[in-house]
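Re: the request from the purification team.
They wanted to know what the chain is likely to look like in 3D before they choose a buffer screen. I agreed to run a prediction and write the result into the notebook, where they can find it.
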Amino acid sequence: MSKETEVNNNNSFFLKKLKTVINTDGGHTMVMFNDGDVIDSKYRVLHKISQSSGEADIYKVQDIRNHDVIKVLKLFRRKNAIKSGVITRLLALRSPYVAEFSDSGSVDGHTYIVIPFYGKGSLGAFISQGVKFTAEEIRTLILPSVLEGLKAIHDAGILHKDLKPDNMMIADDESHIVLIDFGISSVADGSTIVVTQTGKSPFYSAPETSTGIFWTGTTLSVFPSMSYTPASLHTRMPVSRI
């Protein structure tokens, strides 16, 4: 199976911005599964997806119980890497702006989660290809979806903590953006928030995720990301270079 997605839809707004090939094959560390392996008698591995993720290995799989629907399986490298409270709440969460958790499980003590496969890629892929979004495009096409997604997960008592273009996927119909990647998310109960450091992106992370100091009743973690992410989209550069 080809590990490249050819961009050739002339009627697509997002893909017209990216007049090239999105390559989804790249370097990764140790491979847990090989192509063709079946996981938990449910998912057949098609191939490994290249992602700049130090916390997990990501696979494109077929759901053999459901007409071979294509999905993404994320297998965390550390045991107990994602909090059970986060998984429970995300499995129950339904929002078009948040990737639906359709399943979770464990392989040799390593948690995996299953979400839809978004063939149009992430906003981070567009930045890496040098695509620049106008301020109007960011305001009307991107930010409303991101804010709706954040509201949905915050209403569920979850803090994302790694909001960045790589974790913003383009919906298959290109009508909105979908938030993914909750590996370092935390559950907020009242005034108690458990903060993890592993896996977060320091240039996009809010200061309180490092200091551990939060303002009660205020979602501070949104502010830096919601400043840096639009800047990256508008300048075509990662925030580390802005």
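For the purification team: Residues 140 and 176 are 10 Å apart (CA to CA).
Please add any questions underneath this entry.
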